[in-house]
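[job 4471] stage=fold_predict status=RUNNING
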Amino acid sequence: MYSIAHYQMELTNAEDKATFRKMKQQIQPFKGIRGVPFSVVAQLLDEDPTLNVENQSDEVHALFMSSFEEGLIAIGLLSVAVLTQPEQSWNLAQKWLSMVDDVTTADALGKIVIGPCALLLDIDIPSEIENHQSVFAKRSLLMALSAYVPESPKGPWVSALRSHLQSEQVIFVEQAQTHHYSTLFKYFLKEEHPLLRKAIIQLLQLWSSHDLTSLDKILENHPQNLPKWLKKSYEKGQKFYKRTYLNKT
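[job 4471] inference complete, writing structure tokens
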């Protein structure tokens, strides 16, 4: 991890008015945005992906709180620490989870920090969702379940993991572990908040993409059909599953 001053200097030099205007139309986090292209975030993470949570928790927390872009860098750094310090990383992620107020940060934190932590520490994500009232915290925890299928996360914040593992593909499990998806199925059907529905659409597509058999079994035993807003994601995943798993030669 570089010094906070180094990150701030690099990000300040990379601020772009057009990027700022575009970002401001999409998100308005309390800690503010700089308007830095995501390619710069990826480059900084690629250059130095190391973090020792035990010795640098104050520094990386201060980085997370500085701005939207610094927050994404902090998440990227913490994702590498998860591999060797999952408990300390989980504790810090819980602090951040209560502060998240934009979708991009929520998704990044869930996919590459909370999800892998939960896998390593055997934490029950559905129970964690019930413990939070914030829509962004719930969204982050839902997206954490994407780590439970063999599909690489995307985004500049994954650059630290790619650099550390020296691999373009970052896979947390070899086979789908969708038992938590099954636990949440009734919750999937009744959720009404648009931000959470969008997360559920992504999860259902991942579920049908990598474990269609278990999903179809649940659908057979369920008295209701999938609502229209979930059918497309199921069908997309179904096609992927058949192409990837059933057509292997």
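[job 4471] summary: The chain has a mean pLDDT of 89.
[job 4471] exit 0
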